[in-house]
Design brief:
about 90 residues, 6 helices
């Protein structure tokens, strides 16, 4: 318990001593990671980018939901390619 209190005190003092540049950079980094599925959806899955962006806000509170959105965001074009390949492949 003493170690936890020491950690909290150290973290609190470090956070209070942070300058505004660090806080702005930390905030931008935090938002970039939070909305990473939406950013990746713009590159890989444009068709569902709006849905992914809407689901991204509450999904950031759950690691599992955020990871599922990451998978959905990056598999857009791959899914289309596989679907097209499956349609073009003829059975002899």
């Amino acid at each position: 318990m003493d170690m936890l209190n020491q950690f909290i005190a150290t973290f609190s003092s470090a956070w209070q001593q942070a300058d505004w540049v660090f806080l702005m950079l930390f905030g931008l980094f935090f938002l970039a990671v939070w909305f990473l599925p939406s950013l990746l959806a713009l590159l890989f899955n444009r068709r569902h980018a709006g849905k992914i962006a809407v689901f991204n806000v509450p999904a950031g509170f759950s690691v599992i939901a955020w990871a599922a959105l990451m998978v959905w965001a990056v598999t857009g074009k791959l899914g289309d390619k596989l679907a097209n390949k499956a349609r073009l492949k003829q059975v002899a």
